[in-house]
Design brief:
The chain is mainly α. The protein has one domain. Helix content is 87%, strand content 0%. It has two helices and no strands. Helix 1 packs antiparallel against helix 2. The longest helix has 31 residues. The protein is elongated.
Length: 69
């Protein structure tokens, strides 16, 4: 088991990318849903969670693909 510097860098980049993607997905879901009441806010949270999960899966897939290169 070798622990290279490349793996640590990949984890740091993955954390930064997932934080940025979470913020971007929140902005996108706010613009799509534009909640005015409590029920709409719950819908916004659901959409934000779905978009955030999809973006995290995409970031992990890209990080895995890059690490294999």
């Amino acid at each position: 088991m070798s622990n290279s510097n490349n793996e640590g860098l990949m984890v740091a980049v993955l954390w930064i990318v997932t934080i940025v993607l979470t913020i971007i997905s929140g902005i996108i879901s706010w613009n799509l849903f534009d909640p005015d009441g409590f029920g709409e806010f719950i819908g916004f949270l659901i959409i934000w969670g779905v978009l955030s999960s999809l973006s995290h899966l995409l970031a992990i897939a890209i990080a895995g693909w890059i690490s294999r290169l």
